[in-house]
Amino acid sequence: VFILAAVFFNLNLFSRLSDVSAILNPSMRLFLSTSLSLFLPVMSYLFSEAKNEGRASYGGDCRTSSGDSSAGLTLRARTILMWMLLVELLRKQADAVLVTGGGKQGYSGTIERASRIAWLGLLVFYNVDGAGRKAVYGIIWVLAATKLVQKVAISEIAKRSSAYGKNPRLLSHYMAQIQEEGHSDSGVIGSELLKTCKYAVMGEDKLEKKDDPRSRRYRLQLKEFTTVVTVGKIWMLEERGRLLDADSKRLCLSFALYKLLRRRFEDLPITDAETRDCRRLMFKGLCSETDTEGGQDPREATAVALFQVVDQELHFLSEYYHSFIPVVLASSFFFVANYILFPVTVWFFCVMTIVLCSNGDVVYAIFSLKTDNSAISVGLMKLMGCLLKEITKPPVLFTLVNLSVTILLLLTVLYEQLWELLIFILSKWLMVSLLSDYAAKPRLRDSAIFTGVIRSIMWLHGRMSHSNLCFKQFDALGLCWLSFLPLHNKAVPKEVKKSIMEYLLKHVDDPHGGPLSNGLSALAKHQLYQSQLSWACESESIAEVILTWHIGTSLLEMECQQLAGKKAKKKGTNLGSNGNGKVATTLSKYCAYLVAFHPELLPDEDEETERVYKAMKKELKVMGASEGMYKAIKRDLMDALRCGCYYLSPARTWYSKEISKLLLNTAGDLPGHLSKGDSHMTVVQKGAVLGKILIKIAKEGSQEDELPVWNLLADVWTELMVYVVPSSGELHVKAHKEALAMGGEFLTVLWALATHTGIARPAMAASLVEDADELQGISRHPACV
């Protein structure tokens, strides 16, 4: 119980100081769910044992010989009962407020929690004696019961509301009617294009529905369009006092895109007309805005803004499905109802509990609260002081520990309530709601109080640290068969965002450009090296292509680091001195991570990807299974564990160097140029040959300031990264949804962008995916055909 109390306290205090979020860490959520599922049965058994011990000590009677009823339960039994009540109050951190999936919501979790509350009520009101003591335990039980009622009410209201649970289908009707109107301003770009955007931010649920006699569907009365707050209305607001900055506008755009993307998770299609319109909005509108500060590269600033919009969109989506705080319903009305009126109602029930426990005698009820509870009559601090004086005695020591756990749980409950209020106030949901009210109601724009509230929340947002968009880094040459060790998490570099954005812009803008490819198109731009390297992209397995290029890139990276450490720093061979090297190496390690840990997110079938990776891992393990390397691994493994992350440890660096030497020696015995017919070679052998060729190209260009080989690799890895992104099958949609529940992936950010803009792989690859989906009885997403 002490460990559980410490975990709750740490979650509520230290883990949230760096970022305000209504989502619990997935691994911690799993730990809490597992622990709490066993907590009540175990503690109920201990409570029964403690209760029986009390009966035995009084000869089978729960009362003392003097008839005092306060001795009905022993101190140990009362302490266990208090723990059960307090943990039940904290249990909601492991439960999402809105548990929806495909528009359906199960009630099994609600019934289970209601059963726990009923059981605790039975224990309280049938076992605790003394009016004051029963009132204290009854108040805590009332708090737990009202929390359950609150959660059920919020879930049911949200599920039946057109603004939340039923919003995806309503939004499909809305978008269909918007697309029917069309757009005549095809030449507009930048902010002017965003001002014409009719994507709904809020208010579409207030549109009147009218049956269409020509079809069985209803139509929304868009003549009442003034009730809808659109992205265009947000962008058209006057900039009086600079209340709405660029970040606030992009936040509203992210919210509108979140609503559109939710339809994919609710099994609703996105039409081709919508993707064309969104593609134009994102690439011609958002990416054409110029808002740079401090001499920042305009293209990098644009790329950062683009990925910020999509990342915030996925944050909204993740909180909708996995939030343990009702931030989804955030609004000024909900704030009053949930954080003012609801507490008043709860306190009324608490007062009624006190009165009922004393049979209606209010004076006696207030008096007994103090006389029946030593912690209240004596005082917690004085009680702790008395116990500390006798701490050498085992019974006193155990009592002190039990009291400490109880105080820790009480502090956690109080802190959790305050932190929930703070999260609600600082949530992006409330900010979007306030900005929508500001845009929809002109009178609020002239209200000094309302604008002051928005400015205050913005000021608090600016003082909080916010998490960056990150991705995992995995080096296959760095002892990949110890993949159970923690992985390095790295912020996505600005250069990577810029490279991917520029590739997408070129792909969208060029009407005669070819389809997405797995690196061949990138090699075509470097004709000097195309004939030497094109074979590395000709495999039908995307996992094999990724691992081949990953091994080759890793060998080149290791060679450049060694040269930079010896004599070539001034010649520019240090890959850290140029952006292309950073793009190539980080994307290489992230794609390798996807192959190793998330094959379900890649275009190939999971079994094929796992087969390719296991074969590579087995070959590298055999290659490094020399006696000297095993001794070195054993020597350095403790150092790696002390590092906390093996992939940042000296052991990984040493092992990578040794494996690189072995691979380059192996490449010396293989042909210097391969063709598609060399299918007998393994992925490791192909990667070794590719690495040897890349190192040769690097040495040829070592006199230049920036190695051209890194420019080539940056183009190849950017194209490979974009190539694996589009996925329309329901299995991939489900995989991205599960990845979102586990904290999200950078690939999911790119997938959301591709889904909105209709970016797809070539028809041949699409047909193969379609055939695979048909074999599994899965329908495809029409926007990506």
Automatic annotation (TrEMBL):
The chain crosses the membrane at residues 320-340, 346-367, 396-415, 421-440. This is Predicted protein. Keywords: Membrane, Transmembrane, Transmembrane helix. Residues 117-466 form the DUF4220 domain. InterPro entries: DUF4220, DUF594. The keyword NAD does not apply. It comes from the Eukaryota. It comes from Hordeum vulgare subsp. vulgare (Domesticated barley).
